[in-house]
Amino acid sequence: MKICDIIYREEYILSEVDDDLEFDRIITDLSNTENGDLLIVPNEKSPLDFSRVKTLPVAVICNQNTVLPDNIPRILVNNPRLAWSHACFRYENIGQKNMKFIAVTGTNGKTTTATLIRNILTEVGYKVGFIGTGRIEIGGNDVTPKDYSMTTPDPPLLYRCIGNMEREKCDAVVMEASSHSLALEKLAPIEFDYALFTNMSAEHLDFHGDMESYFKAKMKLIQKSKCSIINIDDEYGKRAYEQCIGRKISAGILWRGDVWIDNISNLGFGGISYTYHGDGFSFKMQLPLPGRYNSYNSMLAAALCIDMGCKPCDVKRILADTSPAPGRYEVINDRISVIIDYAHTSTAFKSILAELSSIKGAGRLTVVFGCGGDRDRAKRPQMAKIAEQYADRIILTADNSRSESIRDIISDIIYGFERGSYEIKENREDAIRSAIIGAKDGDIVAIIGKGPEKYNIDRNGYHPFDEREIINNALAERRRGAKDEN
Questions:
Q1: Helix, strand, coil share (%) of the chain residues, nearest 5
Q2: Where are the beta strands (DSSP E) in 319-425?
Q3: CB 405 within 8 A of CB 377
Q4: Nearest-CA neighbor of 103 among 256, 223, 277, 266?
Q5: Nearest to 269 by CA among 344, 188, 334, 199
Q6: Apex CA 432: angle with CA 429 and CA 438, to 5°?
Q7: Cα 143 from Cα 161, distance rounded (Å)
Q8: pLDDT for 456
């Protein structure tokens, strides 16, 4: 491939490279350089050490702050990350006319909403590519790389997957768009047909700095999409709707939008029911997904699919028979109910604990949770306040501590407690087992934070960790103990 195929003249400031120079691979890491490699330096904070490089790249795309040896030709750009995304997109020779591109953004609800869209479109006959948190699929086949944990992949993986989806003749690509991916220009080359805005609350402020910057990152998606479907009950959603310059569809429960729902009934673990209202029609919906917040997720998914041409009766039928996304309010019923959920923002954490508290009846609610390392520390004491408000028993434990000490993370959480009624079990397996063995018949045990993940991350990297296996083993031990007592 030639340099001129992946970067155009109007996109760079200066080039010391012939446009027809050929290269074989795009790389961002010098450690495995081969003949014919083109190096892109997306992060100027990472120092480049050419002293041990046996094979030099044919050229380097970077900004003016990157220091290079004199014998390596440069292409200078203002934004290397933007150039990286366009280069990977063009390297895969992706055409956008054959597939519908759909992105879901928001603080909470992205995975569930995207999964519902995938389910509906698949059932009505679309071949769907899916890119979500920790999971990538092509036509229902799992193609997730090992140790993949992002919401939106970096450009090489992202566009390789989209290229494969096109080659496999997918009709639609449904993906989650994280605020990081938008701020870092990962999605810049894609012309989205639809953008969905679920909601926005404080999260990732360690990266964005403040809520306004966080909102601006989300708006990058809204402003570049042909049609946006927006939850106007959300404060930031209302702002997004007002600022949207393309075709837009408002959706609400508290506020009546272009689509809206009412008559919501909470059916506990059986799900929720409501009446959906569209343009000139309405239908009664019984959704098997628990949690009032899933009324928003399903409303947005239905609005998009119906706008794409799906029949309302088909949307209703498919939603009525849908399953939860793995690790999102996933219920394992025994003599107790164990809930696995990915909630790791204070808003999502409060939503699920409030929901579980409202349906626990005479039973107790136990919550097992921690907070991720190298992430927003401000939310840690907030999680403690929320847990104390709704749970009868609280067990603090590890949750992807990364480079941080588990004890330091737990200390940050503890700062938010007022009554001091909590337990600490740093080993997450021990914490889960203690919660389940100590529960009485009819209790609810919520295991929060990791959701679908099958790994744990500490300062030594990724380690296998399957919560479902741990939960099932603990439930079996609990049954044996009850049998012995009888």
A1: 35, 20, 40
A2: 330-333, 337-341, 365-369, 393-396, 423-424
A3: no
A4: 223
A5: 334
A6: 135
A7: 9
A8: 92
Residue 36's alpha-carbon distances to 1, 63, 122, 206, 317, in angstroms, are 10, 21, 41, 38, 53
Helix segments in 102-259, DSSP class H: 110-123, 155-167, 179-183, 205-208, 211-224, 235-243
Residues of the chain scoring pLDDT < 70: 44-46, 483, 485-486
pLDDT at residue 359, as a whole number: 93
Q: How far apart are CA 186 and CA 164, in angstroms?
A: 18
Q: What is the secondary structure of 162-182 as a DSSP string?
A: HHHHHHTT-SEEEEE--HHHH
- Residue 126 identity (one-letter amino acid): Y
What distances in angstroms separate CA 329 from CA 186, 378, 427, one per listed residue?
A: 29, 25, 23
pLDDT, position 51: 83
pTM score, whole prediction: 0.92
What is the rounded distance in angstroms from the CA atom of residue 157 to the CA atom of residue 398?
29
**Which helix (H) or strand (E) covers residue 252, if one does?**
strand 247-252
**pLDDT at position 96:** 87
What crossing angle do the helices spanning 235-243 and 211-224 adopt, rounded to 10°? Answer: 40
Nearest partner of 22 among 56, 55, 58, 75, judged by Cα: 58
229 forms beta bridges with 196, 249
Let me know: does 477 contact 433? Beta carbons within 8 Å: yes
pLDDT of residue 209: 84
* CB burial of residue 283 (10 Å; 0-12, 13-18, 19+): middle
**CA neighbor of 153 nearest in space, from 173, 176, 172:** 176
pLDDT at 44: 64
CA distance 48 to 406: 32
Distance between CA atoms of residues 243 and 222, nearest Å: 9
Look at residue 315 and give its three-state secondary structure: helix
- Residues listed for the chain: 486
385 half-sphere exposure, CB direction, 13 A CA radius: 9
Contact 172, 128 (CB under 8 A): yes
